[in-house]
Amino acid sequence: MAQFLLSVHHGVDDPMPPEEEIQQMFAAVGAFNDKVRDAGKWVFAGGLEGVESATTVDATGSEPVVTDGPFAESKEYLGGFWVIEAADLDEALTWASAGSAACGGKVEVRPFQSE
Amino acid sequence: MSDFEEALTRIHREEYAAVVASLVRRFGDIDLAEDAASEALVVALEHWATSGIPPNPGGWLTTTATRKALDRIRRESHRDPKHRQAAMIIDPTPPSDPGVVDDDRLRLLFTCCHPALAPEARVALTLKLIGGLTVEEIAAGFLVPPTTMAQRITRAKRKIAAAHIPYRVPQAADLPARLSAVLSVVYLVFNEGYLSASGAAPIREDLCREAIRLARLLLELIPTEPEVTGLLALMLLTEARRPARVAGGELVTLGEQDRGRWDRDLIEEGHTLVRECLAFNRPGHYQLLAAINAVHTDALAASDTDWGQITALYDQLYAVTPTPVVALNRAVAHAELDGPVVALAIVDRLALTTYHAWHATRADLLRRLGRSVEAAAAYDDAIAATDNSAERAYLARRRGQLG
Q1: Where in the sequence is the domain holding B128, given as residue range(s)?
Q2: pTM of the model
Q3: What CATH number corresponds to the domain at position B351?
């Protein structure tokens, strides 16, 4: 069993969908989350506040420096993610495609380093 | 090459996949499996030179390679606690059941052709692990430097390990889609050999032969999927025309080929396979292409070609695969029945301006209509769009013949 990060990325310029669609998406994601939990594959998941709420900390120098905003200006940003358990990539891809359909966004699948 | 060396090369090609696949299943490590298989071949070279080739060289190689792999794990386990743990859980039973070995090759083929790998990496890995070709041979086949090809293969193997790409035949629900990825890799290898987009040698025979060998193996492992049979038939019927396809460094079109030079044995085998796959009554892309080629190779002279049947098959193919390239070939077939005016109208509507065959087809239709100035311009565009020397020679001659 290995762990995978399924991350959802949004474009900065993506238009906000209408309220009704957002509600449908929440319901679909909730149902998907239940399936992941029922299958015993759930590790952790969450949706993130918008990128304008990000703060970056840099403590690589002598004093930590705190700045407003994401660490790099980008056209895309992380909107939310799941961490799941799966036997192999094929299983992770199957979960990812159900997750993508539920949240209405592209899902990137990345394995965690083992140990 | 001596008889012994030739036999050894043949055994290497035929048995390599089975040896590597069996070791990958056992040890879950492609690099270890490949290294052990190579070591076993070196031992075989020394041993068989004096004692002769054993009756079951494949089994001999697998046993020897397994021993080499176990030796290495034991050696490394002294240094590395992780390996020590791995060595302890290894199954000590010798692999001997040939049914299981066949399954291993199929598993490995699906791993090599996994959609999570880049298409060019799938092709390279398949030729390396299933075809038993060296990195240098694959690099030469695809006209890239060996270091580039080596990096491509290393990166793909690293991804298989890091991303947990599984080593098994996909479940029934996923099989058709995954099998089609495997078939397209095999056909890509064949086409790279047959229609290579560039390079001095217009047909790289090794790649064509390798693709046919892979398709034969696939058919042996999955005899119930008509598309597998269709792909093998398609490649055999294409390969059969190879002796007549290039003459004096120039491409010869199907209509102008010396049909006496076609390989009748390959044609006969291809026709049998086409009948077999169509009997499943589940027509698909490769089966229909094979059927079209069967009709072409059925005609002893170009004028005997049954264009009615060919256009009907192209209509069916376009229903299955509605791509601009299929539309182009369908238009060429319709030109034979309905004339070049109708065909040109279809061709001009296709968005294929970067495809050399589109320009060449337009040029030919314009030539037949006597529109020489436009035909000359289309020939120029076609010549500019291909690097294949035989094709350029053909197009240049045709252009020179315009009135």
Answers
A1: 101-201
A2: 0.79
A3: 1.25.40.10
Rounded to 5°, angle at Cα B295 from B293 and B300: 105
Tell if the CB–CB gap between B164 and A93 is shorter than 8 Å: no
Q: Return the exposure string of A51-64: e unless at least 16 CB atoms fall within 10 Å of the residue's CB, then b.
A: beeeeeeeeeeeee
Asked if A90 and B163 come within 8 Å (Cβ–Cβ), the reply is: no
Distances in Å between the Cα of B344 and the Cα atoms of B279, B287, B333 are 35, 27, 12
d(CA B391, CA B249): 9
Total of domains in chain B:
3
- Residue B72 inside a domain? The answer is yes
Question: Closest by alpha carbon to B96, among B69, B60, B122?
Answer: B60
Residue B93 located in a structural domain: no
pLDDT of B206-252, one tens digit each?
788 889 988 998 998 888 899 999 999 999 999 999 999 888 888 89
pLDDT surpasses 60 at B92: no
Q: Does the beta-carbon distance from A88 to B170 stay under 8 Å?
A: no
Residues of B in contact with A109 (CB under 8 A): 163
- Is B372 part of a structural domain of the chain? yes
Choose among B60, B87, B91: nearest CA to B76. B87
Q: Are residues B132 and B184 in the same domain?
A: yes
Domain endpoint, select from B201, B219, B236: B201
Domain's final residue, options B36, B53, B86 = B86
> ipTM surpassing 0.95, yes or no?
no
Those residues of chain A whose CB sits closer than 8 Å to some CB in chain B are 2, 86-90, 92-93, 109-111
Is B308 a domain residue? Answer: no
